[in-house]
Every structure is written in structure tokens, then in C-alpha cells.
């Protein structure tokens, strides 16, 4: 080590020790181990940091990984709605100026060509694009349902695309219906909506395909204000509810045998940056909460969950890459770039 | 030089060992039936995270690791009591201080009349103000919601009483357009003059961003005790949501769940 560096580092080290809470001034990765059981991760808050003057973000809403390993982030910052990273957090590309309400981002492999579905809740539309942003299809409000009288009532938050190309749109900030289209965008039907029955939804913020049981593919829909996921058949018949007590779950993300979801906040501490990340096994049992309480089942009932570590503010989505790393995008969290969490073996 | 280098590597190792401690624990979760109680209240705390303990005080001081470890529900009594609690643990830095106060039911209030709440948030009508239920910082069914410019409550204590304080519990929740009032006045009825006389006015709040959801118990104490059977409370609400809010210029909501006289 060069003498000059050595002196600089020692001085900083001494300073850092004197005020342990601000170790990051030392330039060291600010990491912590989060989670429970076999799903524990080391937090890296610096992974996605970019030059804010050139690549700004507002809310970091959702993330996906394409088959080339690239990580796509959707933000509602129209300077660059899509930011593309490699796994190490290096900026690869950016595009998009026309999604002021960019909220939902879903990847679909369409006969070997990957495409994106963007839900824009300011434009009240769902837009299908190529990976470099060329628009392929736009879905407007689903008047065929008979439930809508104008575009503004439709505030889509998420899409899920079935293997046959059918598009499921969650109107999570509108009327909480799940609307189904074929791959060309022809209307097929709808289900969900608000009400007090099991099949009803309140803040249907996310939707995903669940092909883990090949014999029974299902849809999993978020009912965020009810703190639950709800399972439906592909033609919209209600199957069951997975209570997530205390947790404002965002969209379900399935990777391997597990279901991952960002939890925007805890019921126990509303609108106070009380989010965490939850992980459920194949049987929908919570096995780990990253920065959340230890999952406890009493007589098969999951007990209330809540934030236990101030690692996140308002997590809005998780993405799991091909190497098992987890990325967290956050809403309304001081315009932070996404965090990366690496599994701890 | 060698010694220095060894020393330096010790620093580095120490720093790496403590680097993960930089994050803080979240506050413990508190559970209770109501922050308003008759004789006593039972208050539970929880924090299900291995390697942590909750330390608490009821004397108003900020808890340290030397203060009591929470093991069983805390019994609250007196006119009011404040529980302060912090999570300490082996992996992260201590939490912020959880502060929750509990209030005795005070004098019996046989009847409250006055401004009725909006039909959407009417709870059990004005009776909700004296039901001793509430104190939850969430939009539950205990809260009376208003969009009026002013709210008036008339309190009849049935007989002349000596009182020193009137208190109201408000909800603050900017995400739901719920803001705190800008002015509160208390009037006492003067039998001789047959009119209400102003006893106290406060301008209690400025509505700043980023406060989250909170219960705000607001106490108006008189400089000297007064004797009266009837009181009137006049609340001036926030007419325009501040410019920093997405709904700027709209009429703010005011939410109240309890009214107390001591």
C-alpha cells in the first residue's frame, strides 16, 4: 500500500470508528444480511447508482431480466423511462420519454422474440414494445366489459402474459378488474373487481402466471389493501386466497420454486417507509422476510408481518436474475436507484 | 511501520465486522384496544426478529439497554401515561423511539351535539367522540370525517363541574388528504350572561409534508380552573391542501375520534 493512501485511509478509519453509524463515509459497501431460513441475502445499496444529472429516476417501479442477462428498470421519469443495466450495475442503455406513468413492466418471449408490456397509469394504457422501445400494440380502456365509461377510469398497474400469448391486465388503480385479451389484443373477458366476496379485489396491484404446477397453471393476483394474494384459473375462476397479514404486497414474481414480492409497507406503520420483501415457497408458506419479521405460523395461520430493519423505504418490485440475485426497485423513496441483494449460502 | 500496518489491518477488520451494523432496527410494534382507558389499559409490544430485545420506559425518558426488557403486557393507569420503547439487538443499530400515550376517560360527557360528520365517515355519529375507543393511526371506523370550514361541538356535562383541560384526538394522513386543523377555541357557558365566553385558543399545527399517518392528541389547558356545565369547541379546519401536496388547493379532510374533558 502506498504511504499516502495509507494515511488517508487511517484518518478516515479513525473517524469512522468514532461515529460508527456513518461508516459509508469510509467508502465501504454498506451491506447487511437480511432474511430468514435458506433465503438470506447480503444487501448492496450501491449497485444501481448512476449519474443523476444524465440518468435520473423518479419512482423506480418495476424490473425484469431479459434472456441476455440484462436488467431492465422502468421509472416514471420521462428523461429515460427504461434504464438497462448489466448484472454488475453497469449502465448499458436507456430509452423512453413517453411513459409519464410508467408503472408495470412485464417481459414475454413471443416465439423467440422478447417483448415488453408497459402499464402507464397516467396515459391509462398498456403498451407492448420491443426491447428497444418500438411500440407494437396499445390497449385502451376495456369498454367491452361494460364496466367503464371513459379512459380515465382505467388505471392499469400490471400485466401477465400466458404461454399462449393471452394478456391479463390488472386495473389496480382503477376498478380492480383483471381484463383478458388474446395475443393480438382482442378482448376476451374480465373478472375480479371490488366487492365483499372472495373473488373480489382491492387494489389489484399485480398479476402473474404460475406454471410451477404444470398440470394446473394459475394466475396469482395481488389484492394489496386486503394484504393478500388471490389465485384464479386462467379463465378467471377464483381458487383460493393467500393471506399476507400486515403486508401491502406488490406484484408476485415467480422464480424457480419460490414466489417473491416487494411489500410496499407494513400495516403496523402506515406511510412511514415500513416496507420489506417477502418470499414464499411452493406451498405459499412464507419462508423469509428481508428486513421484515420472522414468519410465524400459529395453528397454520400466518401471524402479522411487519418491517424489522430499516433497509428499504417503499419497495415496489423485485426481480430475480438467472444467478439468483435479487433486485429491489422502490417507489417514493428519495429517488434511489435499485438495490441488489446477493444470496448468502 | 510494521506496527502501524498491523494496527491498520486491525482497523480494517474491525470496520468490516461492524459494517453490517449500519442499518437500524425498525421500531417495535405496539398493540392495544384503545389509547383511551377507564381504569387501566393493557399494552403489548412485539418484535419478532432473532437476537433482539425491546427495552421500555413509562417515566417519559428515552429507554436505554439498562431499562426494563419487555416480557409481558404493560398495565397503564393514571390520567395519562406514555410508553417509550426501543429495539436493541446484535446485528443492527437500535431503532428509533416508539412513543405512544394513553389517556384516561376523564369526566363523563353525557351528550355532545353539533356539526355532523360527512356521511362517508360518520362512525357512530357524535357518540363516537365519547366512546373511549380509538387512537389508531389508520382510517378505521372510529373516525369522524369532515370537510367543513369549521366544526362546532356543544358539550353538556349535566351539572356544573370544575375543569382544567379539554382535549381532542385528530388523525393526520396526508396520503388520504387528512390534515390537522389550524385553530381550536374552547368556550365556557356563562349562566349569568347566558352566553359562551372564550376561554382558550390555540393555533396548534402547520401541515408539513412527509409526516405519514399519526394520531395527534391535542390538549388545551386553561391557565386556571373553570367551573361550568356547558362547553363549546370551535375547530377551524385547513381549507386548502398545501402547495406541496398533489391535491393542492382542494379542501382538506379533518378527522376526529375522541373528545375529552378533565
From TrEMBL, chain A:
**Name the record gives this protein:** Twin-arginine translocation signal domain-containing protein
The protein's UniProt keywords, in alphabetical order, are: Glycoprotein, Signal
Entry's InterPro entries?
A: 6-blade_b-propeller_TolB-like, TAT_signal_bac_arc
From the UniProt record, list the coiled-coil ranges: none
Q: Which PANTHER family match?
A: BLL1368 PROTEIN, PEPTIDYL-GLYCINE ALPHA-AMIDATING MONOOXYGENASE
Establish whether keyword Signal is in the entry: yes
Against NCBIfam families, the record matches this protein to: TAT_signal_seq
Q: Where is the signal peptide?
A: 1-29
Q: Which Gene3D superfamilies match?
A: TolB, C-terminal domain
UniProtKB/TrEMBL annotation, chain B:
- Which Pfam families does this entry report, sorted A to Z? CHB_HEX_C_1
* Top-rank taxon: Bacteria
Domain GH29D-like beta-sandwich, first and last residues per copy: 37-91
Q: Which InterPro entries match?
A: GH29D-like_dom
Q: What is this protein called?
A: GH29D-like beta-sandwich domain-containing protein
Amino acid at each position: 500500500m502506498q504511504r499516502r493512501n495509507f494515511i488517508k485511509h487511517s484518518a478516515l478509519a479513525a473517524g469512522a470508528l468514532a461515529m460508527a453509524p456513518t461508516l459509508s463515509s469510509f467508502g465501504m459497501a454498506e451491506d447487511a444480511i437480511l432474511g430468514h431460513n435458506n433465503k438470506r441475502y447480503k444487501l448492496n445499496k450501491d449497485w444501481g447508482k448512476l449519474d443523476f444529472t444524465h440518468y435520473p429516476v423518479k419512482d423506480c417501479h418495476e424490473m425484469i431480466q431479459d434472456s441476455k442477462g440484462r436488467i431492465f428498470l422502468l421509472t416514471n421519469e420521462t428523461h429515460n423511462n427504461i434504464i438497462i443495466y448489466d448484472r454488475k450495475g453497469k449502465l448499458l442503455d436507456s430509452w423512453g420519454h413517453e411513459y409519464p406513468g410508467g408503472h408495470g413492466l412485464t417481459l414475454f418471449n413471443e416465439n423467440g422474440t422478447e417483448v415488453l408490456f408497459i402499464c402507464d397509469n397516467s396515459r391509462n394504457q398498456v403498451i407492448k414494445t420491443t426491447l428497444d422501445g418500438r411500440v407494437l400494440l396499445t390497449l385502451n380502456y376495456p369498454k367491452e366489459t361494460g364496466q367503464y365509461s371513459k379512459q380515465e377510469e382505467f388505471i392499469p398497474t400490471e400485466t401477465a402474459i400466458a404461454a399462449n400469448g393471452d394478456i391479463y391486465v390488472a386495473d389496480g388503480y382503477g376498478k380492480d378488474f383483471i381484463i383478458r385479451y388474446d395475443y393480438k389484443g382482442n378482448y376476451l373477458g374480465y373478472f375480479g373487481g371490488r366487492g365483499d366476496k372472495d373473488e373480489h379485489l382491492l387494489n389489484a396491484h399485480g398479476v402473474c402466471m404460475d406454471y410451477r404446477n404444470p398440470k394446473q397453471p394459475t394466475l396469482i393476483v395481488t389484492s394489496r389493501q386486503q394484504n393478500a394474494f388471490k389465485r384464479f384459473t386462467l379463465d378467471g375462476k377464483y381458487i383460493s386466497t393467500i393471506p399476507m397479514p400486515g403486508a401491502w404486497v406488490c406484484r408476485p414474481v415467480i422464480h424457480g420454486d419460490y414466489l417473491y414480492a416487494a411489500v410496499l409497507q407494513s400495516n403496523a406503520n402506515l406511510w412511514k417507509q415500513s416496507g420489506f420483501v417477502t418470499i414464499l415457497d411452493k406451498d405459499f408458506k412464507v419462508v423469509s422476510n428481508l428486513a421484515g419479521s420472522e414468519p410465524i405460523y400459529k395453528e397454520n395461520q400466518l401471524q402479522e408481518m411487519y418491517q424489522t430493519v430499516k433497509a428499504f423505504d417503499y419497495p415496489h418490485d423485485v426481480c430475480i436474475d438467472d444467478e439468483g440475485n435479487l433486485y429491489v426497485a422502490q417507489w417514493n423513496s428519495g429517488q434511489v436507484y435499485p438495490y441488489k441483494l446477493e444470496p448468502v449460502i | 511501520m510494521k506496527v502501524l500496518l498491523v494496527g491498520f489491518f486491525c482497523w480494517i477488520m474491525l470496520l468490516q465486522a461492524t459494517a453490517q451494523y449500519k442499518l437500524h432496527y425498525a421500531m417495535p410494534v405496539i398493540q392495544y384496544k384503545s389509547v383511551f382507558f377507564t381504569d387501566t389499559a393493557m399494552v403489548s409490544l412485539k418484535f419478532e426478529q432473532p437476537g433482539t430485545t425491546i427495552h421500555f420506559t413509562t417515566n417519559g425518558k428515552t429507554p436505554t439497554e439498562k431499562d426494563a426488557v419487555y416480557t409481558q403486557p404493560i398495565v397503564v393507569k393514571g390520567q395519562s401515561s406514555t410508553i417509550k420503547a426501543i429495539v436493541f439487538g446484535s446485528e443492527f443499530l437500535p431503532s428509533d423511539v416508539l412513543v405512544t400515550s394513553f389517556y384516561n376517560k376523564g369526566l363523563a360527557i353525557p351528550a355532545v351535539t353539533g356539526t355532523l360528520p360527512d356521511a362517508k365517515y360518520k362512525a357512530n355519529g357524535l357518540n363516537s367522540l365519547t366512546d373511549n375507543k380509538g387512537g389508531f393511526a389508520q382510517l378505521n371506523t372510529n373516525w369522524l370525517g369532515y370537510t367543513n370550514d369549521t366544526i362546532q361541538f356543544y358539550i353538556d356535562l349535566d351539572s356544573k363541574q370544575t375543569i382544567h383541560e379539554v382535549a381532542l384526538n385528530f388523525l393526520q394522513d396526508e396520503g388520504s388528504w387528512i390534515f390537522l386543523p389550524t385553530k381550536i377555541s374552547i368556550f365556557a357557558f356563562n349562566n349569568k350572561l347566558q352566553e359562551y365566553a372564550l376561554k382558550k385558543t390555540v393555533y396548534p399545527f402547520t401541515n408539513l409534508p412527509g409526516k405519514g399517518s399519526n394520531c395527534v392528541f391535542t390538549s388545551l389547558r386553561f391557565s386556571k380552573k373553570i367551573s361550568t356545565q356547558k362547553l363549546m369547541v370551535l375547530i377551524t379546519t385547513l381549507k386548502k391542501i398545501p402547495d406541496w401536496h398533489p391535491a393542492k388547493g382542494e379542501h382538506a379532510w379533518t378527522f376526529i375520534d375522541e373528545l375529552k374533558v378533565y
